[in-house]
Specification:
With about 270 residues, the chain is α/β, with parallel strands linked by helices. It folds into 2 domains: about 5-100, 3-Layer(aba) Sandwich (Rossmann fold); about 120-265, 3-Layer(aba) Sandwich (Rossmann fold). The chain is about 45% helix and about 15% strand. It is built from 10 helices and 8 strands. Helix 5 (about 120-135) packs antiparallel against helix 6 (about 160-170) and helix 8 packs across helix 9. The radius of gyration is 23 Å and the shape is elongated. It starts with a strand and ends in an 8-residue tail after the last helix.
Length: about 270
């Protein structure tokens, strides 16, 4: 049985930065089962004291919890450092080095990483999200000229979550198109995609993975059957090769990894917000 450890992500805002940094480090330890808790918006001394007291009550007495904190206010950080556990704060480690390198004192302003410093870029991200929702699963071909990329794949290969991630995280205008049986039996590209060939990117996955996902959605159906899944994957891959469409197998990749491959292959800009 693997060891269990409690992990707490503390933040004066959303907790996304603490989670991202902490989980990147925790991913290197396969033999430990982590029980993760995120405590956001710790932005007053009273909240900091309550957080320390609460963790002290619920934490495992025999195994000290791991705490990742990304709060900025010095007084709040001083309180949080009194928590019983292994306390890690990237600002303690990296910010002094950056201040030294720049010859400047940092702002120590909360909410900078996931705030809204540039409204135009924020609104651009919302526009990208709306575009992806409107062009999800081939709902419409209108406006595809605006797309940065059009994902093409058989059903349940990861088109929608990848599009939404790239829209929300990077402000990219992403559409996706499902390859139906009629498309897969043809040697030509679907009519709606022909004039956008340069924007196309294909997704496939392993046979067993596709069968499993489809069976959870429609158990016992032809749609989920092994022969149908095998046919669609083989035909999709042949279609991609025939028309020179780059593609990736999504079976063992996270959405973030899939998006990174697509953006690298298509030379798409990376927006950060």
């Amino acid at each position: 049985m693997s060891e269990k450890r409690q992990v707490y992500f503390l933040s004066d805002r959303t907790g996304i930065t603490a989670e991202t940094l902490g989980n990147s480090l925790l991913s290197q330890f396969d033999d430990i089962e982590f029980e993760r808790t995120t405590l956001p918006f710790i932005n007053t001394l009273d909240k900091a004291r309550s957080t320390v007291a609460w963790i002290g009550r619920v934490a495992n007495a025999t195994q000290p919890p791991i705490i990742f904190s990304t709060t900025v206010n010095e007084e709040i950080r001083a309180v949080l450092r009194t928590v019983e556990g292994v306390f890690m704060d990237p600002f303690d480690t990296w910010l002094p080095n950056l201040e030294k390198a720049f010859g400047l004192t940092s702002l120590h302003v909360e909410g900078r990483a996931h705030g809204m410093p540039d409204r135009n870029r924020y609104e651009s991200r919302i526009d990208a999200m709306n575009f992806s929702l409107m062009h999800d699963d081939g709902q419409t071909a209108a406006g595809l000229a605006r797309a940065d990329v059009v994902l093409v794949a058989p059903s349940r290969c990861g088109k929608t979550p990848t599009c939404l991630y790239m829209a929300l995280q990077h402000g990219l205008f992403c559409a996706n198109y499902p390859l139906i049986e009629e498309d897969l039996e043809s040697v030509s590209l679907p009519e709606a995609l022909k004039q956008h060939r340069g924007k196309l990117y294909g997704l496939i996955c392993d046979l067993d993975r596709l069968h499993q996902i489809r069976s959870e959605r429609r158990p016992g159906s032809r749609y989920a059957s092994i022969p149908q899944c095998r046919f669609e994957l083989a035909q999709a891959q042949a279609l991609f090769k025939r028309h020179g469409i780059p593609y990736i197998n999504t079976s063992n990749s996270s959405i973030e990894e899939i998006a990174a491959h697509i953006m690298q292959d298509k030379n798409l800009r990376r927006y950060t917000f």
